[in-house]
Amino acid sequence: MRVKISIVAGSARGQYFVFDKPDRFLFGRALDARVSLPNDPYVSRQHFLLEISPPACKLTDLGSKNGTLVNGIRYGGRNVSAERGRHAPDALRDVVLNDGDTIVVGDTQMKVQILDLPAPQTKDEPGTSDPLPEGSRDQKQEHSSPMEILGKLLRDAAKPHEASKPKQQERLQAPSPVSSRKSGRDFPTIDGYEIERIIDRGGMGIVYKGVNSKTRRPVAIKVMLPQMATNPDNIYTFKREIDVTRQLQHPNIVQLYDHGKTRNVLYFVLEYICGMNLHQFLEQRGRPLPLDEAASLMLDSLDGLAYAHYAAVQVKIAKGKLENYIGIVHRDLKPQNVLLDHNGRIWQAKISDFGISKSFESAGFTNITKPGEVLGTPMYWPREQITHYKYLNPATDVFSIAAVFYEMLTGRWVREGFEALFERCKKQRRVAAISDYMQIIVGNPAIPIRQCNPSLPGSVAKVLDRALLEAEVPYDERKMRNALAQLRYPDAKAFKHALQQAFEESGLSTERIHEARLRLGADRQSSPRPPLNASMKKSKRSGNAQKVKNLQENLAGKKAEGTVFFSSAQGSPNSKEVALLVYGIEELSDYLCNIGDTYFSKTISRLYKRVRQHKSSSDVMLIKSTTDGFLAVFSSMPSAFSLAVSFLRDPIQADVQNRMALHWGAVKLTEDGDVLGVEVHRVFRIEAIQMPDQVNSDYDGLPIPATNRIVMTEPALKQLQKPQRSVFHYAGQYALKGFSEPCPLWVLHKRSR
User: Fold this and answer.
1) Are 207 and 334 part of one and the same domain?
2) Most confident of the ranges 37-41, 165-169, 480-484, 492-496
3) Which one, of 104, 100, 61, lies nearest residue 85 by Cα?
4) DSSP character for 390?
5) 74 and 88 Cβ atoms separated by less than 8 Å
């Protein structure tokens, strides 16, 4: 399948562009536009963007002055009151293009052709067609918040069915809180490997901890989502690209040992890292790193990146012939892809997922026109990652890794605008698209780093600021490479050399860096945890902050957001002591975007079935959907505890990461079957806590994991019998937003059982 864009009228007449892979196409007066018309006054600087993933093609007007005409209908535009013709409804700025559509901006006219169509398609009216390709999730999801979707699915799951079964037969025996989980349950079977547990879940799949059956070497196994293993041609291309990545051998690059496909599941076998990623590391510390401590991690990362930028690799082309190439570009550098391995003395940085982003796009496994399926993280993108999508080179990686360093040293992203964009999208109940990122990136250059961290030496700041420079460069691969090489640094090797010189000039010698590395490594379990600065907190944990709008409202008797879909509670003017359980799915919005609402509805059905059939169900007084899960009210704490432990021991879905909180307190039961009071909102705050919220260092165990845990208050603990209490460990005191007194908490998680 191919998409062809032909210019049939205007000063650029005769040009045409054919796309057989995902790409982006900028039209405007800017120098880096694919079609640049600097002398056309009707055309805006960045006029419209095409997002192409054959056969899908979407046009988005980028806030142009005059708008963009598609089949005679105007999309976008700031000065359209005097313009004749039809306007897209509700100020729409984007439209999915079909075969035969025409695009008009001033004197320029373009024709869209979808080549190699399998069959004729019925064309929808402009402005009303589905903006997602066939087979993607229902568009209704774009107009519903995760909480609304979750509430609806839970209500549907709660509708009476199987009424003929006696209640006693519906319940399942809850597992004992101290018995072991069945090994390998719901885990995929991969020949030659034994899977032990889930490490993490990402947008493309799940990462498991496993061992090689023969060598007993620990490994990380990344299993991709099933929909990515459908087309044989895609799989062939994917394996060819991954074979290139497998050739990278460096101590600062996570080694790819193996990959394959079994039972329609694609998987990679990677070096196992005993530690965490940089994103988790920074969140646990709760503050930016001092330069001397950050320096070793920065140089480690650049060592691995510099090696890759000059690595000699072989690529299999037509008829099995091998071609030699020099250098691989990562394309997706971010804190989550910088893994920190702890060898007992020091932290060592290793870059992961090298080449996997390119492999997926080359193989056609992604759709860049679909919200939620954008590979990479735009907070770390340079301008050319959108404008010169095909021509990314080592200088692109230089910007992205410098953006990661910027966050390490300041606790902030390099640009303004992303927080406001994500908040706006949340209010509009939609997922940010490439065109949204384009406007933020083009309109907000990197903030000079000393504005965010004045203590940085000038020599170091100068190097980092240069690495983050951007400019409009012509849409030509050679000219772009040369321009960026002069503007910032041509590759990671040059960047590292400049940074080392800056360290020396600032008095940060090799010996001082080594001493700081040892100090950082020894501080593994006792990192200082003052509150996160506002920008980092907002960007990293804005979802948790939405659970309760305002504590004053809570004290006044306002209800928490959500939908009650089951209640046996009787309204009473008096308060009643109850057990409160909050269950939350980690990063629900991202999870929902990645798996789609059909798969999600099955997940929610399993969740409700667990609650309904559990032996504690007779003690449930109320169940209410929340922003990312549910609130359950029980008449007894042992019943609430038993249900929570069942979710920890036996997750409803292998790819679901959950957090739970248990609390005992007085609440008010309303006439309509709801529950309110300060203790309700306290338990929501407790469910969302992370290590940076800790206000003392009484906890001497490993850091509390971000997910797959139960956190419990002292009043709740006192309601349990001694055997149940014994499985919890004291976790210290934590600050709860909106509450003046710190809250002592106890934790149960998979590592502590």
Assistant:
1) yes
2) 492-496
3) 104
4) G
5) yes
Distance, in Å, from the CA atom of 118 to the CA atom of 101, rounded to the nearest integer, reads 18
Q: Is residue 188 part of a domain?
A: no
Residue where one domain finishes, among candidates 119, 151, 184 = 119
CB of 679 within 8 A of CB of 576?
no
Residue 560 pLDDT exceeds 80:
no
Task: Quote the CA–CA distance of 62 and 28 in Å, as a whole number.
Answer: 10
Among 213-217, 589-593, 623-627, 638-642, the range scoring the smallest mean pLDDT is 589-593
H or E stretch covering 74 = strand 73-75
Phi, psi angles (nearest 5°) of residue 359: -60, -45
Predicted local confidence at residue 227, as pLDDT: 54
532 and 550: one domain? no
Residues 6+ apart with CB under 8 A from 614: 171, 172, 174, 642, 643, 646
Name the pTM for this structure: 0.61
DSSP structure string for 237-276:
HHHHHHHHHHT---TTB--EEEEEEETTEEEEEEE--SEE
Residues 82 and 223 in one domain: no
In this structure, are 82 and 101 located in the same domain?
yes
In a shared domain, residues 84 and 226: no
DSSP 484-535: HHHHS-SSHHHHHHHHHHHHHHTT--HHHHHHHHHHHHHTTT----PPPPHH
Which of 602, 735, 592 lies closest to 142 in space, CA to CA?
592
> For the segment 467-495, what is each residue's pLDDT rounded down to a tens digit?
999 998 888 888 888 999 999 999 999 99
Distance of CA 388 to the CA centre of its chain: 23
The domain in which residue 42 lies consists of 2-119
Of 537, 559, 583, the domain-final residue: 537
Number of domains in the chain: 3
